[in-house]
Each structure stands twice: as structure tokens, then as C-alpha cells.
Specification:
about 170 residues, mainly beta, five-stranded parallel beta sheet, 10 strands, about 15% helix, about 55% strand, elongated
Length: about 170
């Protein structure tokens, strides 16, 4: 697994795009540091994607927004593991981790594992995770508007991968 480390200095904002499986560490190293972290994965056939993210708040007054999205078709496998770590002596930290996976096949597999390691007081930190299928009523609605089942599913997947999440 390839390791990547990104350091965000004091009063700096960085956008981090995760486009390959691997292990990623994002360190918020100085007060006022902010990171927007996003990853989008569309897997088919027997592809496998394992993404591990560690967002480490090493200074007070830091913020991070992490959003990972995956779509698994055929016999593919998506695994997201994310951990927010707030080190001791780092008050006034805000961090959010979101992991969403959409399954499009009975043979596709997925895991979404978010974790929080909070070692400081006065923080706002949370996570969300889901693994789901395309709701039948969404497909029905688009098909009732003239789309065939394949085009309807493709449109839903495209919207899922492109949709932005709310800010922290």
C-alpha cells in the first residue's frame, strides 16, 4: 500500500484529492490550518480499492472536511478506513469524516469504517458512514420520465459521485 503524507501549515488551506488506493496522512500542523479532503472511486469487474485516511490535528484552531465516495459494480470491493486524531492540547478543532458507498451488484462488497480518536477537550468532531443500494423509487421515478433502466442508474451514480457534502 502506497503511503502519502500532506502537511498543512499554520493559516494554510489545502485541498487534498485522493484518486488512488493507499494510505494517506493529512497533518494539520499549525493554528488556522484547514484541509478539504475528497476521494471518488468507481470500481468494476474485480477491481479492489483500499483507502486508509488519517487526519491528524496537531495544533489548536484547525479544521478539516473529509468526504470519500465509492461505487462498486460487478465483483469489485471498496474499503474505506478513516480516522480523525485530535492530539492532546488542541482545543477549538472542527473535523468531519464522511464515507459513502453505493453497491450496484449483489456480488460487489464494501466496508466503511470511520473512527475518532479525541485526546483534547473543546472540539467538534463527527463522522458518518453508509453502504447502500440505489433506491428502487429513484430508478422508478427516472424511468417514469422516459429513461431506460441503465440510463437511470448511470445518472444516479453520476449525481452521487459529483454531489458535494455540507461544510463542517
Amino acid at each position: 500500500m502506497t503511503d502519502h503524507t500532506v502537511v498543512v501549515a499554520a493559516n494554510q488551506t489545502k485541498a487534498v484529492t485522493i484518486d488512488q488506493p493507499g494510505k494517506y496522512t493529512i497533518e494539520l500542523a499549525g493554528p488556522g490550518a484547514h484541509a478539504d479532503i475528497s476521494g471518488r472511486f468507481l470500481l468494476k469487474d474485480k477491481q479492489d480499492a483500499n483507502v486508509e485516511i488519517f487526519v491528524v490535528h496537531k495544533a489548536p484552531h484547525t479544521t478539516a472536511q473529509t468526504t470519500l465516495k465509492g461505487v462498486a459494480l460487478d465483483q469489485s470491493h471498496v474499503r474505506f478506513f478513516g480516522r480523525i486524531i485530535i492530539e492532546p492540547g488542541c482545543p477549538d478543532v472542527q473535523s468531519f469524516l464522511e464515507e459513502r458507498i453505493l453497491l450496484l451488484s449483489d456480488a460487489a462488497r464494501a466496508e466503511a469504517v470511520p473512527e475518532l480518536e479525541i485526546l483534547s477537550d473543546d472540539v467538534k468532531c463527527s463522522h458518518a458512514a453508509s453502504v447502500s443500494r440505489v433506491p428502487e423509487e429513484h430508478l422508478f421515478y427516472l424511468q417514469s420520465r422516459g429513461l431506460n433502466p441503465q440510463a437511470a442508474e448511470k445518472l444516479i451514480v453520476q449525481g452521487f459521485l459529483e454531489a458535494e457534502s455540507e461544510d463542517v
